Amino acid sequence: MLGSLLNEYLAGMTDIVFDHDGTVAKIIGDALHVLFGAPSEQPDHASRAVVCALALDAYAQGFCERCAKNGIALGLTRIGVHAGPAIVGNFGGGRFFDYTAYGDTINVAARLEAANKQLGTRICVSAMLAEKAEGFCGRPIGDLVLRGKTEALRAFEPLTEAQYQGPATKAYLEAFAKLESGDPGAMAAFASLVGSHAHDQLAGFHLKRLLNGAKGIRIAME
């Protein structure tokens, strides 16, 4: 049963990647390593990556809901997306080749994926990618100091246009602006947002930070 369930999940996820002209470099357990802009160049690789990430998230959420109705509880699918240079090609020996990508860009994407668990988000993209994606819609998460890094990286949670235009996002952006500027009203702003949108785990994450005495938007990831 586990095998058929995993195959159904991976088949749906890989179909979405292919629909957006992405490359599945490898499958590790239930995780996908996806590339855009390789093996062929894609001028709009960043935009494709964001749209694909949102589609993957929607599919994964629906898959979890369908499984839950059958009494099968699954964990969340978390996605990290980053843009930058990488070494891409076939690596191996005379008997085996593995088409994959190596480099800091790949490591950062993996750490952004892991950061979701602490942040309460499901998708975390770097500012470098967000800046390249046409018409990017998203809300800022903060300046993350990822594990093994010393410099902070601005990260965003991508949203659909409808989500971005909603009142909850407006309230979040106002609260985040207060947090970024050091406005003492940030705590009240996030408390109000959490009070009206209890499911907003990112807002809850920032409120917890403020209640514990943290300031600003620089966040050291565990």
Structure description:
The chain is of the alpha/beta class and 222 residues long. Helix content is 48%, strand content 21%. The chain has eight helices and nine strands. It has helices at 2-19, 45-69, 104-119, 127-132, 161-165, 167-181, 186-196, 201-211, and strands at 23-28, 31-35, 79-81, 87-92, 97-102, 123-126, 138-145, 153-158, 218-220. The chain has a five-stranded mixed beta sheet. Strand 7 and strand 8 form a beta hairpin. Helix 7 runs antiparallel to helix 8. The longest helix is centred in the first third of the chain and has 25 residues, at 45-69. The two termini are 34 Å apart.
Topology:
Layout: H1 2-19, E1 23-28, E2 31-35, H2 45-69, E3 79-81, E4 87-92, E5 97-102, H3 104-119, E6 123-126, H4 127-132, E7 138-145, E8 153-158, H5 161-165, H6 167-181, H7 186-196, H8 201-211, E9 218-220
Helix pairs in contact: 1-2, 6-7, 7-8
